[in-house]
Give the backbone structure.
Amino acid sequence: MAFVQEPLPFDPGALEPYGMSAKTLEFHYGKHHKAYVDNLNKLTQDTELADKSLEDVIRITYGDAAKVGIFNNAAQVWNHTFFWNSLKPGGGGAPTGDVAARINSAFGSYDEFKSQFKNAAATQFGSGWAWLVLEAGTLK
């Protein structure tokens, strides 16, 4: 089973009014994301990992120095797929309801969350990925 690049959940030009052009999407989706999928397939071809789910490959290879290339490509496939599915035309803005309350509780304010989130992404070596996660009942 080869790993596949999931299609974008929106038209490539749909985010243009919000700062992400079709050209930017083509570069990141059509080149970067595709390269991670292609590399992952090459690295796992004819191995026991070829028939595993993407999430299983990430779990199995995490922390294994001999499989760092597989882990890095698998993680980037996951990150990109998650990212594309987090976007939608007309989306965005400040959270409301329970998410807003949890952010305020964990970070003090939405503005403080944005500041810490931007810093986490900007200081993440190489990738720039940052995710808001719920760990042991607390947002981090």
Summary: The radius of gyration is 17 Å. The chain has five helices and two strands. The CA atoms of residues 119 and 125 lie 12 Å apart. The chain has a mean pLDDT of 93.
